[in-house]
UniProtKB/TrEMBL annotation:
The keyword Magnesium does not apply. Gene3D superfamilies: Alanine racemase. Residues 7-225 form the Alanine racemase N-terminal domain. Keywords: Isomerase, Pyridoxal phosphate. It comes from the Bacteria. The lineage of its organism: Bacteria, Pseudomonadati, Bacteroidota, Flavobacteriia, Flavobacteriales. The keyword Isomerase applies. It comes from Kaistella pullorum. This is Alanine racemase. Pfam families: Ala_racemase_N.
Length: 371
């Protein structure tokens, strides 16, 4: 069975890297853990490393987090469906909202459960995904203030996830200005502006995060060390917290070009072949992972001389060239993975999940004291 590993020590390094960065700029941050898909092994690692708020967009995952760590603050980070109001109030300490009717349902449920439910109002800043139009924000906020058992703890925005609209200083300043206007008009204090996500982290280095933006939500950069803004990586962070391992189930020298009439394959493509390679051969390996579990475009063999030829539903075909490394049936091949590859593998019941380089609570304590 193929498996994905989470490297606990690398994740801890990335966590402390971001913790130092944010603390230097008086920014609080929450971890977006939806990538882990509620896997208890991996959530245990995260909760052992961090005391931060945990964000997710799936209620079942928040329920798992509350089971593992009842004291952890959980945040539901997409506009809730009204039918889920009972569970949102039960398992999410905070939710991100854009619809007044949904907020009314959450308010009624909070009264029923004798809780104060905290909310962040998400503003539309040009990405055209979720968000309240700025022209409607004042009236919207005033209406929310009338709802019992509700506390608005922040304004937020989401950028780059749908149309790729990048955050910039002007957009973030506008969001901060609206917070000031709301506070003056209604005589309230709004503690947080959750204006940052992984894509906003590089703006810290460029001193382009305005005063008042004091809360970030970070997932991808924590797990992959990515500079999402520039489509690169942040120096000093680990890229390969996750690794895919797949076993070689067949290894043989075969022609480079198939024979016969080519039709469409299972993905609907008709592959083209370089006929100049017609009389050439190479060593090919088949490993036990396929399109049900991964997208071959989103993984990369860790060994540079291995190339991915293609995949079927449950097998991945590799070109080993002359197999100078002497790989044999039963050996494992390692792959690096991007965000979408990990997300897909985490959703597959056919890919096992393992933790490596486990940091115990004592080890974390020692690491903290050495910093």
């Amino acid at each position: 069975m193929s498996y994905i590993t989470l490297n606990s020590s690398k994740l801890y390094h990335n966590f402390t890297f971001l913790e130092d960065l944010f603390s230097q700029h008086n920014i609080e941050w929450a971890i977006v853990a939806k990538l882990l898909c509620g896997n208890e092994k991996f959530l245990d690692v995260l909760l052992n490393i961090s005391d931060k708020e945990i964000c997710d967009s799936r209620l079942s995952n928040l329920k798992t987090i509350k089971k593992l760590s009842p004291e952890t603050t959980t945040i539901y980070i997409k506009p809730p469906a009204r039918r889920l109001a009972k569970s949102i109030v039960e398992f999410a300490d905070v939710s991100f909202n854009t619809e007044l009717e949904t907020l009314k349902a959450l308010s009624a449920e909070a009264v029923q459960q004798n809780k104060v439910h905290r909310v962040v109002l998400m503003a539309e800043m040009g990405e055209l995904r979720e968000g309240i139009l700025l022209a409607e924000l004042m009236e919207f906020y005033g209406a929310v203030l009338q709802l019992p058992n509700m506390e608005v703890v922040g304004l937020g925005t989401n950028l780059c996830c749908l149309n790729g609209i990048l955050p910039d200083e002007k957009k973030l300043k506008t969001l901060a200005q609206y917070k000031t206007l709301l506070e003056k008009k209604f005589g309230v204090k709004i503690p947080y502006i959750s204006g940052g996500s992984s894509v906003t982290v590089p703006l810290i280095y460029r001193n382009e995060v305005p005063e008042g933006i004091n809360h970030f939500r970070v997932g991808e950069t924590l797990f992959f060390g990515t500079d999402v803004f520039a489509d690169g990586y942040i120096h000093g962070m680990y890229r390969e917290v996750f690794t895919l391992n797949a076993e070689v189930i067949e290894l043989s020298e075969k022609p480079r070009v198939p024979s016969g009439t080519a039709g469409t394959n299972l993905t609907g493509d008709t592959p083209a072949f370089d006929q100049s390679e017609y009389d050439q051969t190479s060593v090919r390996a088949i490993v036990d992972v396929g399109l049900l579990d991964i997208d071959a475009k989103n993984i990369t063999p860790m060994l540079a001389d291995i190339k991915i030829i293609g995949a079927s539903s449950d097998m991945l075909i590799l070109d080993l060239g002359e197999n100078e490394r002497g790989l044999k049936t039963g050996d494992n091949v390692e792959f690096s993975m991007n965000y979408m590859a990990v997300l897909r593998a985490m959703n597959s019941d056919y890919v096992d999940k393992k933790v490596v380089n486990v940091l115990s609570g004592a080890a974390i304590s020692l690491a903290e004291n050495s910093n």
